[in-house]
Amino acid sequence: MFKKIAIIFFLFSASLLFASDTLDDFIIKQSEVESLLLDSNLTLDEKVLIKKEQESSYDKFFIGYVANDDEHLESRNPYTALINRLKLSLNSNKYQNNKTASYRDEVLLKSLYTRMMLREILHETLQATKGTSRAFFKEKVNDILNAHLAKYQPIETKKYLSFISEQNSSSPIADALLKALKSQEYLENVVNTFSSSLVSNSSNIYITSRISGSKFLHLLNRFNTTSFGLEANRYLSMLGLNVAKLVLIASVITFIFLINRILGFIINRILLHFKIRQEDIDYINSHITNLFNVITSILIIHIILIATMDISSKGFNINTLFSIVYVVLVSMLFYRLGNTVIAMRTEQIKKSKVLKNEVVNLVVKVHNTLIILLALIVILRIFGVDLTALLSGLGIAGAAVAFAAKDSIANIFGSISILAGEVFEQGDWIETKEVNGTVVEIGLRATTIRTFDNALISIPNSELANFSVKNWSRRSIGRMIKMNIGVTYQSNFDHIRSAISQIRTMLKTHPDVANQDTKYHNSYRESRLVSVEDFKGVKRSTLVYMDAFEDSSITIFIECFSRSVDREDWLKTKEDILFKIADILAKNNLEFAYPSLSVYNPDKKTTPST
Please, which of 45, 286, 429, 521 could form a disulfide with 472 given CB 3.0 to 4.6 Å? Predict the structure, then answer.
């Protein structure tokens, strides 16, 4: 956008400093161009070249005309006297029944009305630039064109040609009629081209109108009108320059240089204010600031070329080249900005409980890919590639590629499903049918897991997304301690009841066992109606009951949860509980049962065991 405004700015200054073509002169030139475009002797390539030159001439004319809008709006209608004279001639020829001459006057009168319509369209457009917004101006331009073109009726060429063929005679008046018809045909083509170019240049016209009120440009014009300026311009004109252009170039370069220095100073002050480390400041200067300096330097070179050369119609040679350079450099700037922020905040991201490492990695990859894709799309657009046709072709080819790469696509969607569903994250201990270990990284294609025997395994994300995964790390409080203790049938039930009561009391008062009084910090807020304790993984129940009469023992069922979910802490707690349970059973004269077989003999009072 800045480049576009800069081009308009310099073209505007050039039109202000040098007299631009009048509307009549421009219409005459464009009628000649339309005649060339209808010439059957020209090749298609030649006509394409003429059309490009025509588009450029319309761009220059509109900017030059708007640059002197006050002068043009104040000028009188130059067609009034000619129209009145032709009307008198037409009435006289009709009275004398001179049909050929009256037809000639009708065509010439139609030509003047057509020119007057173009003038009215252009002047109403200039008046509309005084509106409040660009969007309003564009709508107004369309309304102006629709209003005039709806009333405009093209000339009936067949009527006049039929009359000439019926006369079957050649005369100066008949030749003048044919010439007038041909000129009107070209002029009507000018109307169509003029209307479409006016719409396409509406943004440039609006910007130029805003610039035209600048006192600075009028001040530049005074440099050329001074005695020194007139003398210097005699030599500078050979280089395509003048004093005003040199002052304008120096002013713009100075402005850009100052803006660059001010922005650099502000950025450094901000970095120091937030106490950014010196090594990070050096990193920013080498990756961001230097690239920004390159962009501004190329911009200055471009502005100098705009001012000293007529590059508006050079096609690909200069403007397109600079456009591509800008796209590449700006893309690199945004690419480096994103990666620099991540590089500087690596330690904070690792410690953050909100930002997940795998999400950050995915965002960086997507950010870099999107910037490259957008840059390629913009470059293709600069080359004039029809993106609609290109995307349609890619859609057909993409279907074949998608079918061939369906597994890879499934893995990408699997990674999105894992991250969106928060199934697991880096550092979690997960267990699947085949793998048990710690998550190293969640990539776009696969997830890498470090097993407990120190092997690194890669599993496609589509498999992890479609099959059950146990996540042992998603627990805040409570890692299960579960056991079945068997005592012998010779035990006294009162002793068993007492032991169960003591074990229950021991577990509820154990400092490392979770119970209903165990508190935990929860800053989590969920917009859904869910059980927060189940969602966060909080288990605090304690169960101790006589459970069953087994073949060889009376079973006591014990289930509780350690406060810590760490494996080593869990093992220590479990070991301490086992020792305490053994002490309680010993105090209550209870013995651990073991598998045995008893033979019962009804003839004897004793039952030997074997």
Answer: 429
**C-alpha span between 5 and 431 (Å, rounded):** 61
**pLDDT per residue over 455-481, tens digit each?**
888 888 777 777 778 887 777 788 889
For 171, 196, 218, the CA distances from 244, given in Å and listed in that order, are 55, 33, 10
Q: Which of 229-238, 372-381, 384-393, 520-529 shows the lowest per-residue confidence on average (mean pLDDT)? A: 520-529
- CA distances (Å), origin 473, targets 270, 414, 422, 462, 470: 40, 21, 12, 21, 9
Query: What is the Cα–Cα distance from 528 to 489, expressed in whole angstroms?
Result: 52
State how far the alpha carbon of 520 is from the alpha carbons of 538, 539, 571, in Å.
9, 11, 21
SS3 of residue 226 by DSSP? coil
Residue by residue, DSSP assigns 317-359 as IIIIHHHHHHHHHHHHHHHHHHHHHHHHTHHHHHH-SSS-HHH
Which value, in Å, is the radius of gyration of the alpha carbons in the chain?
44
**pLDDT per position as a tens digit, 118-141:** 988 988 888 888 766 777 888 888
Distance of CA 188 to the CA centre of its chain: 43
Q: Identify the band that residue 69 occupies on the pLDDT scale cut at 50, 70 and 90.
A: low
* pLDDT tens by residue, 527-559: 444 566 666 778 888 899 999 998 889 999 999
Cα–Cα distance, 579 to 556 (Å, whole number): 16
**Residue appearing with tokens 């064109």:** 145
Integer Cα distance of 533 and 37 in angstroms:
80
Mark 18-29 as b/e (b = at least 16 C-beta within 10 Å): eebbebeebbbe
Q: How far apart are CA 245 and CA 14, in angstroms?
A: 8
pTM greater than 0.85: no
Largest CA distance in the chain: 160
Residue 301 is which amino acid? Answer: I
Does the pLDDT value for residue 366 go beyond 70?
yes
